[in-house]
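User: I've been trying to design a sequence by hand for this structure and keep getting stuck. Would you show me what you'd pick, starting by listing the structure so we're on the same page?

Assistant: Good idea, let's start from the same input. This is the structure you sent:
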């Protein structure tokens, strides 16, 4: 990472055999961990950078639900236009690539 940036180091540990995330470790600016009112004023007792670690455990197999990945649950195409499913009526579809089928 560039010197003086918001992140000094990032380590991601994966179990590639099980295809699972094991942990993530960051060294980031302490100010990023503070509420908005305090971000400009990091108290002297804190270092400029902080170490943050997240560990992921307790994985369990989920029942396969291929319907979950069926895009018709979320949107559909009516003529040349994409429309959202009723459950997502407040959403707007942005077509970033013209000519989608």
């Amino acid at each position: 990472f560039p010197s003086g940036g918001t992140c000094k180091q990032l380590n991601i540990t994966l179990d590639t055999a099980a295809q699972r995330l094991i942990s993530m470790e960051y060294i980031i600016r302490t100010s990023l961990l503070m509420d908005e009112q305090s971000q400009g004023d990091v108290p002297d007792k804190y270092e400029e950078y902080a170490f943050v670690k997240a560990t992921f455990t307790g994985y369990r197999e989920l029942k396969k639900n291929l319907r979950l990945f069926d895009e018709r649950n979320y949107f559909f195409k009516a003529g040349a236009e994409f429309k959202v499913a009723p459950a997502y009526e407040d959403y707007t579809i942005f077509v970033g690539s013209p000519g989608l089928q």
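That's my pick for every position. To get oriented when you compare it with your attempt: The two ends are 40 Å apart (CA to CA). Residues 7-55 form one domain.
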